[in-house]
Design a protein that fits this description.
The chain contains eleven helices and four strands; from the N terminus they run αααααααααβαββαβ. The chain is an alpha+beta fold and 296 residues long.
């Protein structure tokens, strides 16, 4: 009964509504893999990079080993090890991601016109950018394509190593392993594509909607707070604090606002108190009144 409830929740969840975007993201990433990465010997980390190496070794031996099929099989085997920790929803999201990616990779391979290997730098740049857009769309919808993330989870569970550092080490190892198969130049360009891909993924997942948060310490906190509430129409929270040197009780104002409002915040604060301590920091995501809702 418990499993039936979990599956019903998944069917009714936003993930099902986002499935077309997940499919689009997987198709974009697969296109970039077929057009830029595989033809130019760019094994940019992860299981896709490993599959690219294996496919090239198979080609030299006269055996055709499709990259997409390899990624599906390897991800399926790895998922059996970690599925218990993520539950049914994690399994559905992951299976959907790596199956669609593998399917599109092998589907597009005969039809995509590969970019000439004469300009490998251009292939690495565009491969990283377009792949990043595709993967970013997938991650933004809560799905994923498995790969080195799954391996990182397995290693982290068996040791004290952090998942993030482990995933990075795996990706670097795959790039390094491609050097004897292709060349050192190819491996270096693959690493470049991998780094660029990471930046693009972050930009797509954040959606360019990163916010700012401010901490304000001032004797004129009431006047500043009033302008934040009424002029900017933003919520504001008083954090009770005491100065370590003065031992004086004085609240710290905290609130979240958009990047475009940074000049306005500075103007409001320093008009009331030029000696204010104003700290502005990045916020990756803000959910609630004035920002996006939990269902977005």
């Amino acid at each position: 009964m418990a499993n039936r409830i979990d599956i019903n929740r998944i069917i009714q969840s936003n993930f099902m509504n986002d499935l077309p975007v997940v499919m689009l993201g997987c198709a974009i990433a697969a296109f970039a893999t077929d057009a830029f990465m595989i033809p130019n010997g760019l094994a940019a980390g992860g299981l896709t990079g490993l599959a690219t190496i294996i496919a090239e070794l198979g080609r030299r031996s006269g055996v055709n080993i499709p990259v997409g099929l390899q990624t599906v099989v390897m991800n399926a085997l790895l998922l059996l090890v970690v599925v218990r920790s993520g539950g049914v929803k994690y399994a559905v999201q992951t299976i959907t991601g790596f199956t669609l990616f593998g399917f599109f990779t092998d589907l597009f391979a005969p039809f995509v016109l590969p970019m000439s290997s004469d300009d490998i730098m251009l292939a690495a740049l565009w491969g990283g950018i377009i792949s990043g857009i595709g993967y970013g769309l997938v991650f933004r919808c809560g799905a994923n394509t498995g790969g080195s993330d799954t391996i990182g989870q397995i290693i982290s569970r068996k040791s004290s190593l952090p998942v993030g550092g482990t995933v990075m080490a795996i990706d670097v190892a795959v790039c390094a392993a491609s050097a004897p198969v292709f060349s050192l130049i190819n491996a270096l360009y693959a690493a470049l594509a991998m780094v660029l891909m990471g930046y693009v993924v972050d930009a797509v997942v954040d959606g360019g909607n990163t916010q700012r948060a401010a901490f304000i310490i001032s004797d004129e906190y009431e006047a500043i707070e009033r302008d934040i509430l009424h002029t900017m129409d933003r919520g504001c929270t008083r954090l009770e604090a005491r100065g370590s040197w003065t031992r004086k009780e004085r609240p710290v104002l905290f609130f979240v606002f958009s990047r475009r409002e940074v000049p306005l915040v500075k103007t409001i604060v320093y008009e009331h108190d030029p000696d204010t301590l104003l700290i502005i920091t990045d916020v990756n995501e803000a959910i609630g009144y004035g920002f996006k809702s939990m269902t977005q």
